[in-house]
Design brief:
The structure holds 2 protein chains of 2 kinds. Chain A is of the alpha+beta class. Chain A folds into 2 domains: 4-77, Ubiquitin-like (UB roll) (Roll), CATH 3.10.20; 85-167, [2Fe-2S]-binding domain (DNA polymerase, domain 1), CATH 1.10.150. Chain A has 6 helices and 5 strands. In chain A, strands 2-1-5-3-4 form a 5-stranded mixed sheet. In chain A, a hairpin with a 2-residue loop joins strand 1 and strand 2 (10-13). Chain B is 26% helix and 24% strand. Chain B contains 18 helices and 28 strands. Chain B is globular, with a radius of gyration of 26 Å. Chain B starts with a strand and ends with a helix. Classes of the chains: A alpha+beta, B alpha+beta. Chains A and B meet through helix 1, helix 2, helix 3, helix 4 and helix 5 of A and helix 2, helix 4 and helix 16 of B.
């Protein structure tokens, strides 16, 4: 039986070594090094990818657990020739410095905006029900799983707001 | 052709302001931005190398002693394991910034818990990790290694200042403050863990690594391996944050190089996050006594700053806590002394803004206490005490914008200069208040080389082994060259982070932009001379913009199919001894303090800074935002915790060491005060990266007091400290 996983729309066989994390699988086996390893313990968010529409820390899950799953990494969101709106906004607002947390921030923000659109509440929401709004405080709360040591948070929030307001 | 320039006098010609391209200083987006946001910018561990083996470091679980046995055979029998390396050349500490020689070597001798002692290499990362975990190590432990900085004798560092009679000034003062602050250890915690891929081609070594200063790192690596520098090539095109932790060659680089040679195949070694915490650098904890004596009006008559820091035996580095205290404020009676306690905790070294990052929060906290005693506004107290010249050296300041920063910052923030009393504003269960502090960071500058080629097709190429660690080097060098040669920055290709290029300054001490930027400026000036001769005008009269002269002649025509290449070699000259040079600024913060839990939240913060010429408004602002964000960490959350029994770093990951997260950082304002510092560098720029965190924590601490009445002398001001200090 050949178990497969879809990464950015392409089917791949799962690795033989069950210890291989989804993160190491995309970085080492597939050469998709846009997804970053910052801590390998689910503490920094640099490895954020989108699995079946939901953002997760790819270091905290084993590749073999994702038979049949659809994974989107930063490479699947846009390219230098055709960047996504969020990728463009991060450049325009200087939402990064060293760039190492950036793919994770952008994958996270992409799925996060969908969570708000789906009216999922957060700690910053006024109510657990009803329509959720893209406020600065909502973005800060929902993006707090993605650390940025350069301290680009203020610009990250501005970039995400910009895109959310454009598409609103 | 190399053009040498040594700056011996202030650069008053203001050439850059007279250029016609008009791109320098503008908020140009990072030229490498799209590569970073699409994940296509390769960091050290990410170069595809055929047949690469994977190495994992093994670290010590004792504090001091010797390794007397490694059960290599058991581990070599494990699947995929290729080697256990315990070569005597393995380095056991990172090199300190600008060391230029190998750090301590010899993995058998252990001087701190967590020190690397071996490298296990296997076919895959999982195999190497498993084997490293299973390597049995026999130690001969040397008990009783001191790990508590409070419990050992201290050594006095050179540079003690005793001027006048501080004790007398304190006794006679109308108002005096004598307080002791403590700060805890900090970690750089750059997001990219230290990593290296080493590959040999015969005797030629190539290493992709994550390093800040290749110009020094190449010598450190060659020295550690016992090879010639010419046989070594280091590449660091993208560095995922440094903050001091990647100044010197680190352990995984040397280990990868040795393993790759032994195995005759490429080897990659990436440190785990825990290893980065435990065997790279810590910022020393500090204990600081501040003594301030003032007359009736608040004019300082005495200034005392005494600090105790720690490091391992044999380490020259001592957190330079007093760096800006020497010149920031007046006071004719002075006493400044730095002492080091020798203990067996991991290496203490540079973490963003070594010195002022912790010295300024203590000094500025003490100034707030003094302002209250004198009964004047804290902004006013600072304004009264800005010295006309360096109060110790008697030197003029190259340029000092502290007053402008204080005034413009206060106005932009909406600072209420009325009488200040704590606990004046309440919002539900929160006390709300404001605080301010000065910023200061001594200016550093260093020798640098860069080669600029104006290509026959009318584009330019800049080459140097300087790095961009997120600071914006790629973009600002393109802007400097673009301004000088009349080109848009996207017509300038900047190649960094490769020791095949001329030696830049490296990124550290906030000196990168001013130093390497000056080398690019020098090279471009020489190219302009060549062009001017072709046009038949003086260089000073040559006007270039959009690839053309003012007469409309294109660069392509002028070049006539030839390139013009010049290497700029900038050297700081005697001018360094003629002035005291520093960046200055002011922080203003509004915080809320929960009256029941003691939690502090920063509502808003503003920093006003004067750091000479702004090379790129956007990236400069980002540097300031980063500094202010670090100030929030220093003030409220960041503290290394060491086990009192064996000195090992306990909170060695990003879950337990609390760097600010997005929700900890409110909207921040940055104000850049116009300045051209003609004595600081030929391009009249100073450093930015560190100034933004030199004092900011005190603005928050002082705001906590203003909000809640809790006067705290220990950073970080966690809820337990705040609750304890809060009046009933």
């Amino acid at each position: 039986m050949s178990d497969t996983i879809s990464i950015n729309g392409t089917q791949h066989s799962l690795p033989d070594d069950p210890r291989r994390s989804l993160l190491d699988f995309v970085r080492q086996d597939l050469g998709l090094t846009g997804t970053k390893k910052g801590c390998d313990h689910g503490q920094c968010g640099a490895c954020t990818v989108i699995v079946n529409g939901i953002r997760i820390n790819s270091c905290l899950t084993l590749a073999v657990m994702h038979d049949g799953d659809e994974v989107t990494t930063i490479e699947g969101l846009g390219t230098p020739e055709a960047p996504s709106e969020l990728q463009k906004a991060f450049v325009a607002h200087d939402g990064f410095q060293c760039g190492y947390c950036t793919p994770g921030q952008i994958c996270s923000a992409t799925a996060m905006l969908q969570e708000i659109a789906n009216n999922w509440p957060s700690d910053a929401s006024e109510s657990l029900e009803g329509e959720m709004n893209v406020t600065g405080e909502e973005i800060r709360e929902r993006m707090s799983g993605n650390l940025c040591r350069c301290g680009a948070y203020a610009n990250i929030v501005a970039a995400i707001r910009d895109v959310a307001e454009e598409s609103a | 052709m190399t053009v040498h320039f040594k700056q011996d006098k202030p650069e008053q010609s203001n050439r850059l302001d007279g250029m016609k391209q008009g791109v320098l200083g503008k908020g140009v987006s990072r030229l490498e931005g799209l590569a970073k946001v699409t994940g296509t910018a390769p960091y050290a561990a990410e170069y595809p190398v055929e047949g690469c083996a994977e190495g994992v470091l093994v670290t010590s679980t004792i504090t001091r002693g010797e390794v007397v046995g490694l059960d290599k055979d058991a581990v070599l029998a494990m699947p995929g394991v290729l080697a256990v390396i315990d070569d005597s050349r393995l380095t056991t500490r990172p090199a300190q910034g600008t060391a230029n020689e190998a750090p301590k070597q010899g993995p058998k001798t252990i001087s701190y818990w967590g020190q690397p002692i071996a490298l296990v290499v296997a076919e895959t990362f999982e195999q190497a990790r498993d084997a490293a975990k299973h390597l049995t190590v026999k130690y001969r432990e040397e008990e009783g290694a001191p790990v508590d900085p409070q419990a050992v004798e201290t050594e006095e560092k050179d540079g003690t200042v005793r001027q006048g009679d501080l004790a007398h000034a304190m006794a006679e003062a109308a108002h005096s403050v004598d307080v002791t602050f403590t700060t805890r250890g900090h970690a750089s915690a750059a997001m990219e863990p230290h990593a290296a891929i080493a590959e040999w081609d015969g005797d030629k070594l190539t290493v992709h690594a994550s390093l800040q200063m290749l110009n020094y790192n190449i010598s450190e690596l060659a020295d550690a391996l016992g090879v010639e520098e010419d046989d070594v090539r280091l590449i660091s095109r993208f560095v995922g944050g440094g903050f001091g932790s990647k100044l010197g060659i680190s352990e995984e680089v040397v280990a990868a190089a040795i393993a790759a040679k032994d195995l005759a195949r490429p080897v990659r070694v990436v440190m785990s996050r825990q290893q980065v915490f435990q065997c790279i650098m810590r910022r020393s904890e500090t204990t600081q006594r501040l003594r301030l004596a003032a007359d009736e009006d608040g004019k300082l008559t005495g200034f005392g700053h005494h600090a105790v820091v720690s490091n391992l035996p044999g380490e020259v580095f001592a957190e330079p806590v007093l760096q800006s205290s020497h010149f920031l404020y007046s006071g004719e009676n002075r006493e400044l002394m730095l002492e080091v306690a020798r203990i067996h905790r991991m290496t203490a070294g540079s973490v963003r803004a070594p010195g002022e990052a912790v010295g300024m929060p203590a000094l500025e906290g003490a100034m707030d206490v003094l302002a209250e005693k004198v009964g004047i506004d804290p902004v006013e107290l600072r304004l009264k005490n800005i010295p006309e010249q360096d109060p110790e050296e008697g030197l003029p300041f190259s340029s000092n914008k502290l007053a402008e920063c204080l005034k413009q910052g206060a106005e932009a923030f909406g600072w209420d200069s009325g009488p200040r009393k704590p606990r004046q504003h309440q919002d539900g269960e929160w006390w709300v208040g404001t605080g301010m502090a000065s910023a200061a960071r001594a200016h550093s500058i260093s020798e640098a080389r860069a080669k600029v080629t104006l290509k026959s097709d009318g584009t330019a190429l800049v080459e140097t082994d300087m790095t961009d660690i997120g600071t914006g080097t790629y973009t600002i060098l393109a802007q400097i060259a673009g301004e000088m040669l009349g080109l848009e920055p996207n017509k300038v290709l900047v190649e960094l982070g490769d020791t095949r290029h001329p030696r830049g300054s490296g990124s550290g001490g906030s000196w990168g932009a001013a130093s390497t930027g000056s080398a690019v400026y020098v090279a471009c000036k020489a190219i302009r001379e060549d062009l001017a001769a072709r046009v038949g005008v003086e260089e000073t009269a040559l006007e270039l913009s959009q690839g053309k002269t003012s007469a409309g002649k294109s660069l392509i025509d002028l070049l006539g199919g030839e390139d013009i290449a010049r290497e700029g070699h900038y050297e700081p000259g005697d001018i360094k001894d003629d002035y005291t040079a520093a960046g200055f600024g002011a922080f203003f913060a509004q915080v809320r303090v929960n009256r029941y839990t003691g939690e502090t939240r920063v509502d808003r913060m503003l920093g006003a800074f004067g750091f000479g010429r702004v090379l790129n408004h956007k990236t400069a602002r980002s540097q300031c935002l980063g500094g202010i964000t670090w100030s929030i960490g220093v003030a409220l959350t960041e503290a290394l915790e060491f086990d009192p029994r064996d000195g090992h770093l306990v909170n060695c990951d990003l879950a337990e060491y609390h760097v600010p997260v997005n929700r900890d950082v409110p909207e921040l304002d940055v104000l850049m005060v116009e300045e051209r510092d003609a004595a600081a560098s030929p391009i009249q720029a100073k450093g930015i990266g560190e100034l933004g965190m030199c004092g900011g924590a005190a603005a928050i601490a002082n705001a906590i007091y203003n909000a809640s009445g809790a006067r705290i002398f220990d950073y970080p001001m966690t809820p337990d400290h705040v609750l304890k200090a809060m009046p009933d």
